[in-house]
């Protein structure tokens, strides 16, 4: 498009006439109404378009998806690719690999793990991937042009009720085999963060069960409305964004009850994760601690903060209404140096979380202190003071 | 063909600000220009800066999006911890993969097929310092770090001719790893003050002691390099110099240099204020054709590179003024111009007259410079000199633009043209002479013999004698022309002889064709166009 072009007209013309639709997937893409509209206009050109019982579109023709970010960016809690809306689940986002060319296999593996963004600067992977992409687009059959589209009235593909649409139009639900279940993700040493939230705020538990926490907190993904406290939802999103920026997989965990009555269970959870080298943080709502510290809840939280048995940090989230004297309280009570007060401004929050995660990762890596006798040591140079010369 | 093992050289200095990264970057450039595969690693994690020198050639010059060494180490630690306790011995391919993530090839195509890969210190940004400072090197070694480094070392040696590591200063743990564990060569930069000299001396002795005691006693070579030499205080400089040379005498490398002072002639880098303000490669900061060419940063870097690599033919490739201006403008301050020239040259200066219609010319001149590098790379074989057509196309203005390397190359090419012409004449003379001799002496002689002996002998004599004569005259003529004429550098007596014997069949000088480079020189590079 050139300067001065009318975007809406030009876009509509492209969407109704062009052969292929290339969508570059980022978590933000799914929340943008205009992106959803563009996709919907194009999708509706496929005559075989249908939906399966899991809500994934089938027969979507000539739509090519590109995973731009590393795989962590699309994972939510314990499920891989949970961020990607269900309608897109059955649309190809990875080039097929006949397995004949090791260089190509390597490029595709890299793309799947690290996303296109990390391939862009790399030869020959990028060329290989582009070639595959171009070949795929060239192979696509022509789509009949659709008659006209209007952005003002177009539906957002991510919000649109596709099931109803197909039910209304009389087409039966596709009876093809259901899409394969999403792969589970488990916390791994140094590359996953498990954040335990201690709060009274309401949230929707994630339906997937895990063995390292009583429950997981579901994030508000596109198209799935959740009953959740707005500020908690914002915090969850920021925690994930910070984790992804540091290449970490984030799990939002909580105990039952969310604010524990006794420290034992939560401490055991934290300890066993720390022992495995998984990064752990405890996100404490300031309404729970230290504001009303004399309560039983407050004492339990404080016990966990004092415990030397786990290695992570405690993040104090002044989700609304901050108390500025948190530092003083920590100093006055002689608490260990694991308290981090998160800033309120959202632009400061993600950097603060990133620093905290890197700090936790450092704690998770650092040795237990006892040196095993056979272990190799870092070779150390001796400076001028090392040996006295005659 | 089995590739020879690459060398790993660490550039170290006891104190900062000695021009260590600068020496490394220039060394890498010179090696790559001579056709070597070079990997440069910025191991100065606490104060990374090597990428500044490569700024114009990196797609992400500030490394905000590019993972680096520290990210590689974190990746390794994560996989090592995930595998604990069953196995902490990651395979070589895994290390290769994690290192691969952070490698970037510089956008610079060397005609000789050499290249520079660069591994930065780490992705720059909000949490870089935390990522560096929270990495527990002790724990890294407990997790099998030493083995990981050994594997990586072997892997890199097989991939590259040279691996250059920019080390941390002082006695930090990372400095220990990259000076003791990894290299076979340590280039120790120091400035002319007591702390710096004593520091470097102590460190090198400590490396030697550590290596002979623990790590397989393998050889390690030290190259002390005096930097930031400032001539203003000549008396004090002289005493510092004497002190440094005495102190460092017995750790100098055992090269064929007979006297220490010969070594130090090559290994002193003067302080040049122009270079102090911005990290610029000498290949672009200095013109190779500058007057007093012996006294520039560039020539000193060349001397250093020749000394460390033990290769006397290393040269920095020349750069056209257009290209130089373009590269200089990409360095950070953005206002750099060629030193000595006034900023923003007015219309009419050579740097600005280049307009579109010259684009073909520029391409042609770049080709000639590339051909010169190939000539050097192919041991000065005369086949890679300039062809007659190329010499004809070269205008006087073009010649003025070139520096000493190209001047030498052109003069050799001209000599080659003259020499080859002389040899062609000798070839014709040789043929004529043999024909005459055969006609007047041997043909009648054979006729006399023929009735007496069999025809077989006659015919064999008839064939052998001219060939023998031809060979004798050819050898004599070729040697004579080679001796009396002015053959180009690299033109052997055997070349002359074979040309007198075979004439044009002995091959000719072709025009430069970038597509036609021999396969070992070809490589795909992520160049912008």
What is the compact description of this entry?
Chain A contains 10 helices and 10 strands.
Features:
heterodimer, A: 390 residues, alpha/beta, Rossmann fold, 2 domains, six-stranded mixed beta sheet, two-stranded parallel sheet, 10 helices, 32% helix, 11% strand, globular, B: 529 residues, eight-stranded mixed beta sheet, 22 helices, 52% helix
Can you describe what's shown?
The complex is a heterodimer of chains A (390) and B (529). In chain A, α9 (326-333) links the parallel β9 (313-317) and β10. Chain A has two domains: 7-168, no CATH class; 192-365, Rossmann fold (3-Layer(aba) Sandwich). Chain A contains ten helices and ten strands. Chain A starts with 6 loop residues before the first helix and ends in a 25-residue tail after the last helix. Chain A has helices at 7-17, 33-43, 102-114, 125-139, 162-168, 230-245, 263-275, 296-306, 326-333, 346-365; strands spanning 21-25, 50-51, 57-58, 63-67, 192-198, 215-216, 249-254, 279-285, 313-317, 339-341. Chain B has 529 residues and is of the alpha/beta class. In chain B, α9 (194-213) links the parallel β6 and β7 (221-229). The longest helix of chain B is centred in the C-terminal third of the chain and has 49 residues, at 404-452.
């Amino acid at each position: 498009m050139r300067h001065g072009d009318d975007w809406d007209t030009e876009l509509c013309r492209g969407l109704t006439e062009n052969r292929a639709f290339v969508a570059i997937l980022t978590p933000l893409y799914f929340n943008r109404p205009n992106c959803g509209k563009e996709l919907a206009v194009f999708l509706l050109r496929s005559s075989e378009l249908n939906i399966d019982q899991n809500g994934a579109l089938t027969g979507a023709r000539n739509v090519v998806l590109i995973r731009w970010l590393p795989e962590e960016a699309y994972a939510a809690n314990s499920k891989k690719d949970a961020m990607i809306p269900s309608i897109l689940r059955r649309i190809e986002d990875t080039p097929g690999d006949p397995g004949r060319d090791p260089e190509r296999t390597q490029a595709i593996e890299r793309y799947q793990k690290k996303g296109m963004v990390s391939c862009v600067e790399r030869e020959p992977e990028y060329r290989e991937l582009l070639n595959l992409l171009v070949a795929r687009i060239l192979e696509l059959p022509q789509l009949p042009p659709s008659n006209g589209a209007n952005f003002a009235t177009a539906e957002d593909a991510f919000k649109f009720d596709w099931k109803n649409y197909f039910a209304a139009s009389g087409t039966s639900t596709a009876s093809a085999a259901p899409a394969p279940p999403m792969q589970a993700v488990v916390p791994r040493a140094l590359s996953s963060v498990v954040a335990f939230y201690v709060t009274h705020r309401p949230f929707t538990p994630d339906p997937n069960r895990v063995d390292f926490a009583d429950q997981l907190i579901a994030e508000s993904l596109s198209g799935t409305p959740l009953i959740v406290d707005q500020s908690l939802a914002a915090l969850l999103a920021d925690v994930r964004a910070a984790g992804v920026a540091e290449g970490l997989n984030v799990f939002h965990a909580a105990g039952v009850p969310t604010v524990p009555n006794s420290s034992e269970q939560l401490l055991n959870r934290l300890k066993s994760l720390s022992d495995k080298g998984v990064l752990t943080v405890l996100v404490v709502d300031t309404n729970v601690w230290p504001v009303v510290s004399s309560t039983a809840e407050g004492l339990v939280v404080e016990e966990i903060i004092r415990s030397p048995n786990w290695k992570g940090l405690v993040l104090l989230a002044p989700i609304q209404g901050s108390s500025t004297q948190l530092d003083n309280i920590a100093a006055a009570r002689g608490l260990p140096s694991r308290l981090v007060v998160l800033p309120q401004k959202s632009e400061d929050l993600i950097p603060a979380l990133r620093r905290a995660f890197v700090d936790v990762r450092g704690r998770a890596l650092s040795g237990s202190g006892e040196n095993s006798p056979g272990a190799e040591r870092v070779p150390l140079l001796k400076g001028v003071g090392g040996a006295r010369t005659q | 063909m089995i590739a020879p093992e690459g060398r790993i050289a660490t550039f170290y200095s006891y104190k900062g600000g000695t021009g260590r990264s600068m020496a490394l970057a220039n060394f890498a450039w010179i090696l790559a220009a001579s056709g070597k595969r070079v990997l440069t690693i910025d191991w100065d994690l606490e104060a990374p800066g090597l990428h500044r020198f490569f700024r114009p050639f990196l797609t992400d010059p500030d490394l905000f999006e590019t993972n680096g060494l520290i990210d590689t180490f974190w990746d390794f630690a994560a996989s090592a911890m995930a595998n604990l306790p069953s196995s902490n011995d990651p395979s070589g391919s895994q290390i290769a993969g994690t290192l691969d993530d952070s490698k970037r090839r510089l956008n610079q195509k060397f005609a000789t097929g050499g290249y520079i890969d660069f591994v930065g210190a780490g992705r720059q940004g909000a949490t870089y310092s935390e990522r560096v400072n929270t990495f527990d090197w002790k724990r890294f070694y407990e997790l099998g770090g030493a083995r990981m480094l050994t594997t990586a070392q072997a892997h890199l040696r097989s991939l590259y001719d040279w691996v250059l590591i920019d080390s941390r200063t002082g006695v930090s743990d990372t400095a220990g790893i990259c000076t003791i564990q990894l290299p076979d060569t340590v280039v120790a930069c120091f400035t002319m003050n007591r702390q710096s000299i004593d520091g470097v001396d102590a460190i090198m002795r400590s490396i030697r002691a550590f290596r002979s005691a623990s790590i397989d006693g393998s050889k390690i070579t030290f190259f002390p390099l005096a930097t930031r030499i400032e001539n203003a205080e000549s008396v004090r400089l002289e005493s510092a110099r004497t002190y440094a040379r005495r102190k460092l005498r017995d750790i100098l490398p055992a090269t064929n240099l007979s006297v220490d002072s010969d070594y130090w002639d090559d290994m002193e880098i003067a302080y040049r204020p122009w270079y102090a303000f911005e990290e610029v490669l000498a290949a672009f900061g200095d013109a190779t054709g500058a007057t007093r060419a012996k006294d520039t940063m560039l020539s000193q870097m060349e001397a250093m590179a020749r000394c460390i690599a033990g290769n006397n033919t290393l040269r920095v490739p020349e750069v056209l003024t257009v290209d130089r201006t373009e590269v200089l403008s990409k360095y950070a301050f953005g206002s750099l111009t060629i030193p000595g020239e006034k900023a923003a040259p007015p219309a009419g200066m050579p740097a600005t007259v280049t307009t579109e219609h010259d684009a073909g010319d520029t391409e042609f001149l770049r080709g000639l410079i590339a051909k010169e590098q190939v000539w050097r790379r192919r041991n000065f074989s005369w086949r890679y000199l300039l062809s007659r057509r190329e010499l004809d196309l070269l205008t006087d203005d073009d010649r003025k633009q070139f520096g000493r390397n190209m001047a030498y190359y052109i003069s050799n090419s001209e000599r080659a043209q003259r020499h080859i012409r002389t040899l062609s004449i000798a070839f014709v003379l040789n043929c004529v002479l043999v024909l005459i001799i055969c006609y007047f002496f041997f043909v009648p002689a054979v006729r006399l013999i023929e009735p007496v002996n069999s025809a077989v002998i006659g015919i064999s004599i008839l064939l052998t004698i001219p060939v023998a004569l031809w060979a004798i005259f050819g050898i004599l003529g070729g040697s004579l022309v080679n001796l009396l004429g002015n053959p180009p550098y690299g033109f052997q007596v055997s070349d002359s002889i074979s040309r007198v014997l075979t004439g044009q069949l002995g091959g000719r000088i072709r025009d430069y064709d970038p597509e036609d480079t021999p396969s070992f020189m070809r490589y795909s590079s992520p160049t912008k166009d």
